[in-house]
Amino acid sequence: MNIPNLLTLFRIFLIPVFVVLFYLPLEYRAFYTALVFSIAGITDWADGYFARKLGQFTPLGAFLDPVADKLMVAIALALLIEAYDAWWFTLPAVVIIGREIVISALREWMAELGKRTSVAVSYIGKLKTTAQIIAIIGLLLFQDSRDGVLYTINMIALYVAALLTLWSMIVYLRAAWPDLRPEKP
Question: Can you give the pLDDT at residue 12?
């Protein structure tokens, strides 16, 4: 067990804490859920940083890190879909969750073909993740406010994250396309 793996496991541990806080009738519930999600985002960055800096890459970390990221984002969005209860919120949230499923399946398929590196995480993927984290933190923090400037900014951030999510999916699918086409007879 190394520092990056411990940070990833900590992020997974935060998921049930996040869900419980989301439903507790606390006065500062929105702040606490945004704080927990922020800590998860920081540990996402930190585990990658320490893995590179200390050369502590492991098969367990390579497996768990993207799982932890996708779980935290999908669960946060699922809870926010319930909280916001509107089609204009659900649409970009479903795009983000659906893309994560598609790309996970694509990476698994490419790994079976021995071509996992053709769909490795790219700069646009990192940008997408950053946009998602920023949007979700804002939406969590101000989930009780449904009007005004902050609501508008957070909804724009969610749509920007969804657009970057679609863009990154297209980039990955284009990279894998030669291997997904049927072989010529």
Answer: 96
